[in-house]
Request: fold
Amino acid sequence: MAAEDALNGRVCRGLVERARALLQACGCGAAGLTLMCSPASAQTPYPVEDGGFWAGPWDWTIMMGLDPDCDAEFQEFSHAALLPTGVHQGKVLMWRREVGGPPTECVTLDTSRAWLFDPGTPHTLIRIDQTIDGSIFCAGSSWQKNGQLLVVGGIPLPVEGGAFPKETYRFRPAILGAPVDVNGLPVILEDPWVQLRDMNAARYYPTAMGLNRSPITMPVTGMNIAGGSTLVLGGPKVIGAPEGNDMWEINTPNSTQWSVPISPQNPFTPIPPMATPEEWTSHSVPGTVPPFVSNERFDSYPRSYQLTNGQIFVAADVNTVAGRGINTPGQSWVVENPDILPQSPARWELWGSLPIEERFYVPAVLLHIDDPTLKNRVLLFGGSKPPEPPALDWIPLATVDEFIPGSNAREPTIASWQTLPPKAPLLVTRVYHNAVVLPTGQILIEGGSSTDYTGGHGPNATLTPLFAPELYDPGTGPADPGSSTFMNASVPANVPGSNPPIAQRTPRLYHHVSVLLPDGRVFVAGGEVDPLPDPPAYPSPLFSGEMFSPPYLFHYPPGTRPAINDAPTTQEFNNVGSTVREFDVDITKVDAANTIDRVVLLRPAAFTHHFDTDQRYIELSFFVASTDPVDPEHQTLTVTSMGEDHGPPGWYMLFVIEQVAGFPNKRVPSVAWFVKFT
Reply:
């Protein structure tokens, strides 16, 4: 207890200064602020060090020139991406659909505008003056290895008779200059958006997925898929709509074109663009049912990743179009590529079923732990399921599932969703929440509702916002069920005038976004208002944002954390050919008695609809190459580079994690260092 009290004493001496700075940053003022520096045994149940700190909310409605009386479903911020390069590196790109016209009409326009959020000036967004002549609301997006964001598809356009869009765009952060003052607001005048050629298939709610560095060459067809390409799959199949979910297609970096459509039955074999969709009867795995029983394919934002063996893994298929049912209830599938596993033709293979078959809006994350047996850990958190008998109001879940691929990809029985021991559940049921992997390997479960109206706006169609996030520890592997801890659970949410604002203030529900920032904080913005109570009991989430500082930022006085002094900005992958590649990282620790216990990579976010397809956590092997004898806090780490099978080429955030001596569960991350892997 004495050691714990001593640590808390060091923390507390900096907390007042830290809290005052945060309050001033959010415009709350610091008058009346009181923090008690007392032993741990006398502290409140959730001090800042244990519960984190919320700053905000900042409401941007007025500065954006918006009419809050408009039906804003399509103009809210529901897309966000962290810029990895350029003068605005570390800022958050957000976009929305424009709504204009007289206030009584609120006409939905077929244009889209983007904005930048700067964590250093949270009160004011930076407007990007260029607009897109089309709607990329409900599009898919992923960062490509050229540092440009590929954005595909979107919502149906009224001017085209309700057809889903085929348009695709790239956002180029490297060309952005400094903002200029336009009527008192910061505006970027460069044109970062460029339009590519249309996709072959129109897509709504698609998943854009970056592929790993290794190219895929098909010896029979001669088709070559370049390493680092972007695969696009999914999109609802509705009456009168194009065939978006009947086929996949590929875009290679720096190319404006798309591959010919790819049949998902044999997904690396080109087929004619207008081919009749095949029935799923001929390529099923013996002993399993075919993956589909109709011509419908993957639906809305399928939670998909490429595994380290090259297989395309679909962890969950999210149904968002009412009245059609789920295509693949509870089943997870991989594509067997004959160039990787030449024993058989390319085909779908079942890799186990979820204990709860139908999951709606379930966040997913991918973890590659620094252990050969702990690669490809995919976790799903919560979501909701339809009731039996069917009803309009669905049932939120607290279930956490982990998928553990087996070492033998030819044996589906070895790879399945973990059931023994079961993963620790969330502490409350959640739907419309987000999952953000932190540099420490913990997962922030943020926002959402404990009730759902998925089936429609029925008589009970109200949501119950959740303001206390959870910090989920996924455990060390299959034998560890993990655990979850409430953040600020003892502090009432939305108490007017409460000081300091360590509880989240604004409901973050459907369509809200959550992004890990380079300094280790988490930016949260957007979300729908309807169907919250009328009159609303909470501030509007539509055009506002907040930032959460996790507890690891309060283990020491403000600003005290390990530092990366120098590291490469460009690095080759490990084991390209037979070469083992390493790089040095020059660091300064907080305390010589502490140890650096992790060096990790996290990919910058590309977030929408409660899923970040780019998000992945990668631990790297390392050793301490040298320690300065005069300044023992100063060390050089030699780090083994990321394997080319662990993630797509492009930019990553590099963090070093310092473990506090005597407290194995207290870890402090550095500020991120951006590295481009080639």
